[in-house]
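#struct-pred

JT: dropping the chains for the assembly here, can someone run the whole complex?
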Amino acid sequence: MKAEIISIGDELLLGQVVDTNSAWLGQLLFKNNIEVKSKTCISDTEEDIIHQLEESLKRSQLIILTGGLGPTKDDITKKTLAKFFNTGWRIDQGVVQQLELFFEKRSRKMLEINVMQAELPESCLTLYNEWGTAPGMWFEKEGAVIISLPGVPYEMKRIFELKALPLIKEKFSQSPLYYKTMVTFNIPESLLALKIKEVEESLPPTIKLAYLPNLNVVRLRLTGASSHDGSIVDEIEIYANKIKEIIKEGVIAENDLTFPEIVSQLLIKHHYTLSIAESCTGGFISQQLTQLSGASQFFVGSVVSYSNSVKHHQLGVESILFETVGAVSEPVVEQMANGVRERLQTDFSIAVSGIAGPGGGSEEKPVGTVVIGVSSAQKTIVQTFHFIGDRSNVIGRSSNMALAMLRELVLSN
Amino acid sequence: MKAEIISIGDELLLGQVVDTNSAWLGQLLFKNNIEVKSKTCISDTEEDIIHQLEESLKRSQLIILTGGLGPTKDDITKKTLAKFFNTGWRIDQGVVQQLELFFEKRSRKMLEINVMQAELPESCLTLYNEWGTAPGMWFEKEGAVIISLPGVPYEMKRIFELKALPLIKEKFSQSPLYYKTMVTFNIPESLLALKIKEVEESLPPTIKLAYLPNLNVVRLRLTGASSHDGSIVDEIEIYANKIKEIIKEGVIAENDLTFPEIVSQLLIKHHYTLSIAESCTGGFISQQLTQLSGASQFFVGSVVSYSNSVKHHQLGVESILFETVGAVSEPVVEQMANGVRERLQTDFSIAVSGIAGPGGGSEEKPVGTVVIGVSSAQKTIVQTFHFIGDRSNVIGRSSNMALAMLRELVLSN
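RK: done, full complex below.
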């Protein structure tokens, strides 16, 4: 069975909005063993939508459209679908009621253009939107399913997961997919490929290996469709173990977690608390950890000490160090790490000071120079790194490295 | 002239990686008056790449492929392009030299699979990659240009901007595009559309209006291709003024800036300094401001006070308040705002405390309740909001609202 995603909207083509919807859909469908074979982004015109629908219906049984719904979009997707499926219009009273409730809750007056959102193509099944104003639609044609969803990520995700996915599962019963992800850290992709070349070449055709690199992390994913006797599960486990034997401590997690998730889970498990002193990362590490719900179980707080004055007054770094060794130095980071841990009274701490660029570099300390420290009451480890890449790369790599060092320290505790 | 982008890679289809490349390319091409008419994401197989190239060449004169290059991808794009253009192979000595330099700089040994990256299709022009190992390629066929770039954003962006774009401009001389963006805040899209309906309907066919909503911000963009006498510039200005007259202070910027950029520029212009006390936003506002280079010109530091103990010890919030009114309350946020401003010695400050969810809500203070304060030595303004959406929505809306309140306070200073 083939699935594909069509994203509608000039704002996507012009890059004003990054299409995170299709990535989210691809991931969720993959986990349900429905592989997305192509994703297309087109302009919100009737001509382009119809052309793409015709093309897609030739090859796919599940087509998910996002966007082109909503008041100011002139509901182009809805109108085009009604035309494409050659159907009339109906007023959906369920949608009318939901719209009334939606505006009442927000103490806003419902506008004429909002009322029109309850008018839907006759032949579609309504996928009710309890989170916004544009309902989703489910059409069927010659065994294929065409789903239209609003483009707002928050609404799209909820409608898809709660309203559409159960119907999809019912319609297309797929044998479950088994996959195992291993997260590796600080091993370049090409070196990783060389190391596990033999295992990779010995994989049976039923098992696939994918490399998913991002900054200094490479995810290795083994995938196979389940057979009835469940042997694929054991088989994937065998190859995963072979890879682990080669990569050893380079594998930092054996499931599909992000770096902040790995560290959060570890700290929560041991009931440890954490504080952070961030300079060049400017709050990025704190934000990465606190975007996960439940962060308050381990995260106490941070000091983003951009200026030296804050490093001195809020973290207790000796002022003389800024003149003698400079703010980006191991002695300063050591004091930042200990200062934040002692003042915020936590079990562990992270401290980072560096030059993220593009300005601020010198011959001695070029852009990308980052000093990272982690500390506990027993031990403080400080190390200097030279990261390659632009500002956001340096910040991202620093964050991953700091979390990796913290993980090591916690594990050795 | 039509342009399109083809992104290659299963990691994109499966949603393991969000395709930010095509958004970036779309934006840059748009600014150069080359409109991207479609974006497609396909699997890294020869069959899919060739099928898509054939389709794309029927309708487009500029085709940009990203991804499917690099050691572990088996260089599928390169091999497929050589086959598609029916060309032999050559070793590019420039690439060999660059690879040697690349590995020398990183003190890493060059591997056999890296050396193979210097082997390129005979008929392509090399777009040298000074930032990574996979070179870009430029092909021409029957007046159309096909460009292949590596998928790593950092490398792709630099090769495209510095190596490919100058050649594109030379090959396809486009009349420049004129566009004007107005950033509006806190006006729902449907209400905005209603307010400016008459102006929108009066637009000549040469000028287009686009709505680009994101959280509580809607960008309005007027676009027109330049005529030789430059009249389009004046004409767009006339309609922009008409919109401004209607929306008034709802327009917070008249160029295509993000909220953090707007506030950063304002603070830098007036030589003001800023500190932040973040609770539920967990470092997000600090990170938004410090991801922009030059943030040190105004940003002094932050205290991410997740626990009440940090609010008390680092910001001076009276402990009794946590029991009487609770951490998410106007008295606490007022003390956070003044505390961080006084302790970090800045002109202005922001403070945020709230319930981002999904847990932590109560009947009295449901998820989405956020108290925001901004302060200067003269004035402190604190307000309670009820934001709708999931955790990341509540954090994002809180950040925008806090920056909007700060902007107001700075402007009224």
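JT: nice. The domain at 259-411 of chain B is CATH 3.90.950.20 (Maf protein). DSSP finds 16 helices and 17 strands in chain B.
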